[in-house]
Amino acid sequence: MIVIVGGTPLGGEIRASGAKNAALPAILASLLTSEPVVLHNVPRLLDVETAVELIRALGKEARWEGNTLNLWGGEHLAWEAPAELVQRMRASFLVLGPLLARLGRARVPLPGGCALGPRPVDLHLHGLARLGAHLALADGGVFAEAQHLHGACVYLDFPSVGATEQLLFAGALAQGETTVVNPAREPEVADLVELLRKMGAQVIWHTERLTIRGQRELGGAEHTLIPDRIETGTYLLAGAITGGRVRVQSAQPQHLAALGDRLILAGCELEQGEDWLEVRGPVRPKPVDLRTWPYPGFPTDLQPPMVAFLARAEGRSTVTETVYAARFGHVEPLIQMGAKIQVAGSIQVVEGVERLRPAQVEATDIRAGAALVLAALAADGVSFVAAEQHLSRGYEDMLGKLGALGAKVWREEG
User: Fold this and answer.
1) DSSP string, 72-136
2) pLDDT above 70: residue 115
3) What architecture (CATH level 2) is domain 20-224?
């Protein structure tokens, strides 16, 4: 249980950690080679530890040195991924492409993770089938086999991050040239491309397509992960919702243009440098409307914290969720804290209130947990937020960083 004494404006500066959503595919990319891969700026998160545990179970070696992760070995990889690990975290399903490309066969259970509504892996399977994989669904998993993957042109109906990364993995060792039309453009995908290039992959990125020229093998590499834009945005919103002033160092402002635009419309003062962002929050925000969208649109992962921020706006905001059908786990707990929110289909109508009230609430997923923490920081009084298990999956030392900004927050057992 997290205990938060709210009502104090946050102030000061913190440093952004490495991006969780860049770390996970980077770790799994090491399955494409038996040579050493060294990753710097890796956040020590529960999901990252799960990814490390998964590749160890498949035959890789891994050693931590602070926030540097050394990966090597794997000359004799296992071709079946353990169900217990894959079902902990959706990103684990990405082992399918590397195992298939390296070994010619793979069996991977269908993934788990946060309960955000249906997130089928159809695009992953469609793309791998286009590259020549024979696929079968049985016993809650996917069995894939291909004597040789071959290049092909794959069109994605939706710019799925996971499907794009899966095709990058498979295409890197396929025979010939693979083209992905309408790929995901997220910074984390670009970071994976950079790592694969260092490993010897030939990837050409145009705005609307990715071209991967398959290699017989890939080598080792050393790579520093980009900063976490979702963590950065969450702490900026923490400063804004409390009417405080917060600076996040080691950030990449260009990755958060959509959030910055909405913060300014809401009445925040926003400054930025080459590698930092600083926000000063208003007494109460102005209402704004927004729609989540694949990058460079407003990130779905910042939608719940943004709703918490808008819950105190002077008027009505509408927030439309277009990426995940059921990303509304934050709504009922926020209502318990005094927010006025109505959900109609994919739209949240948020009627701002002057004050949020403290409460005991429970999170259902990572970003809902962040939203509840932000609401508790703004509420006058003591809140109890059951969210630590979720937050440890997505935020490195959240309580420590909030404490550095002046928040009265601590962990309570039981």
Assistant:
1) E--TT--SB--HHHHTT-GGGGGGHHHHHHHHSEEEEEPP--S--S----HHHHHHHHHTT-EEE
2) no
3) Alpha-beta prism (3.65)
Instruction: Give the list of residues 6+ apart from residue 138 with CB closer than 8 angstroms, or none.
Output: none
First to last CA, the chain: 7
Q: Does the 2-17+227-411 domain belong in CATH 3.40.50.2000?
A: no
The predicted pLDDT at position 327 comes to 86
pTM for the full predicted model = 0.95
Pairing, β 68-72 against β 202-205 = unpaired
Active-site residue flag, 114: yes
Residue % of the chain over a pLDDT of 90: 90
Q: Where are the domains of the chain?
A: 2-17+227-411, 20-224
Residue 168 burial (C-beta neighbours within 10 Å; 0-12, 13-18, 19+): buried
Report whether 10 contacts 402 (CB < 8 A): yes
CA distance 68 to 57: 20
Residue among 19, 24, 114, 402 flagged as catalytic: 114
Q: Which of the residue ranges 41-45, 54-58, 139-143, 273-277 would you say has the lowest mean pLDDT? A: 139-143
Quick one: tokens of 149? 């993957």
Does residue 384 register a pLDDT over 80?
Answer: yes
Report the alpha-carbon distance of residue 71 to residue 376 in Å, rounded: 40
Given a cut of 80, whether residue 112 has pLDDT beyond it is no
Q: Are the folds of 2-17+227-411 and 20-224 the same? A: yes
Cβ proximity of 11 and 235 under 8 Å: no
Per-residue pLDDT tens over the stretch 295-338: 999 999 999 999 999 999 999 999 999 998 788 999 999 999 99
**φ, ψ for residue 143 (rounded to 5)?**
-110, 125
Q: What is the mean pLDDT of residues 199-220?
A: 95
Please check whether residue 44 is in contact with residue 71, taking contact to mean a CB–CB distance below 8 angstroms: no
Cα angle 114-255-341, degrees, rounded to a multiple of 5: 50
